[in-house]
Amino acid sequence: MRLAFKPLSAASPAPTRLGTAPRSGLLKGASPGRAAARAGTLAALIIAGALAACSTNSPEVTTARGTAQLLDLSAPDLAPGLKNGPPSERLPDNSHLGADFMELSFFLESGRALPRFTRFEGPVSITLAGNAPPVAQTELGHLVHRLQSEAGLNVSTEPGNANTISVQFVPKRQMRQEVPNVACFVVPNVESWTDYRNSHGDEASDWAKLTQRQSATVFIPADSTPQEIRDCLHEEVSQALGPVNDLYRLPDTVWNDDNFHTVLTKFDMTILRAYYDPALHTGMSPAEVRAALPAILSKIHPSGGSMRTLPADPTPRAYVKAITTALGQGANDNRRRAAAERATKIATSRGWHDSRAAFAWFAVGRLTMKTDPEKAVAAYKKAGRIYRATPGAEIQAAHIDMQLAAYALGTGRAQEAVSLVNRALASDVSSENASLMATLYMIRAEAYGQLGDATKEHQARLDMQQWARYGFGSDAAVKRRADEVAALANAGARVN
């Protein structure tokens, strides 16, 4: 199950929203001293939000994003850069692809093993039901086009096929009452929200007991932002079609509970293409699938070399529990910080230098900014170094640079903030995430304002506007985020 966690720059996590306090509230509780004011303002921007705990409801569900205010957008209003998928990415070699395929396909996020391979056999109709926001139809059309062209899947938005994926929008209050710790999710063999509520404990809606996929329903809060709708569609529809597991160790996929990636990547499309290769079929055992994979991967990724068996590198449940506690609800600040530190120790003891280690340091940075900014910055820098050295983790590195740019802005180092924003934008991977782009341009605008460059400040605000409403969902939500960044700039200006 994917956790309902949002990095700072993304739209607000559920159920806690970033930016609900008025601008004056950012400094609430701060002492009159400049250092305390800066720490309070910085913490309000950087550590606001929460990671929702895993749902223990049965059947197991796959969650995605949080919610904010709804904004109905027509196609011309979609943020630029979001229509044709992310930029091209590198793929791992076939040995790693094969290991990833097996772990994604034969385990649930809870660690339960899946006894057989399941998928849809034949064409699949992916349709919207009920009062879907207009933007959902546009985003679903873009997603289906990518699934057809990049993964070669036999899917369409036309009804009439025996295999169906239905996307249904449910009032947020109803979803919170039933599954308070999840945002959006997919369930097999249910037809409606009422059907889902009555299906708890039903074997037909248990992924581990499926014998074949014929129908699934994705549930999304009706008041989600455009970006949240797109993100939910990408993750939940893809997991209805393919793997239902999420892995912290994978840097370049939406199937990771860190939620940094927001749209399907080249890695994801390659896994889905392999999932629907003619050599596979529903009912195959793990051993049968493993035996078929070398030929499949050699065909779809010929430059990936031959597939060989790699040493197992599972993520222990202790790490998952530590991250969930650190970035989740139900624990006080001291327990959360201790859990984040525990995650870094697990990563160190296992010799990890991958996205799991980096995410643990990210958690430390997020949780210590208010109490120990220097420690937080050091943790973010460790995370950034690991992400920048990890192929496929460019979007994570951009998020870290945004965190550091916000800190630089709030501590009076405007030129450093500009440099960090520029580095985050240079890779171009951030263009898949409108809320991240908007926040980066807000920081750039305020930094240029501190530097007295009115022309560049104005341009940055223009650049911000083309992303902001798509990412945050309403003018009011955009203003709240802009006010938070402005409050940081004001704190930084007082340093000088």
From TrEMBL:
Signal peptide location: none
Region (Disordered): 1-31
Protein name: DUF2927 domain-containing protein
